[in-house]
Specification:
The chain has seven helices and no strands. Helix content is 78%, strand content 0%. 5% of the residues are buried. It is found in: Cell membrane.
Amino acid sequence: MLQALTAILLCQLAGETISAASGLPLPGPVIGMVILFAVLVIRKGVPRDIGVVGDALLANLSLLFVPAGVGIMQHAARLEDEAGAVVAALVGSALVTIAVTAFVMNRLGPGRGAGQSRSNEAESGGERG
């Protein structure tokens, strides 16, 4: 289990190193997660010990939000001063996220797979009318 945790943290360290060295606008942990994903795809499966460690981390994920909550409380006065901008950013980003998700689901959802063409949809639509 310690080896699995070490492997996960090494992927994060590699991501941090790549992010710092290259100046990419991506956080190191995101790059590390992509590295871990690539390794798991190449191995064609998730080793049992990495799965156990991942499940344990996910089970305790809520603990990782405690520092963010403390930071918000420390800057409560600033948030009050900029409440309008914060609310606008939250609502705007939520609407954009919903719109992008709807677009992607519409384009890639069930019935829109690579094997089905638009001509099949036209044929099925032609039978109705």
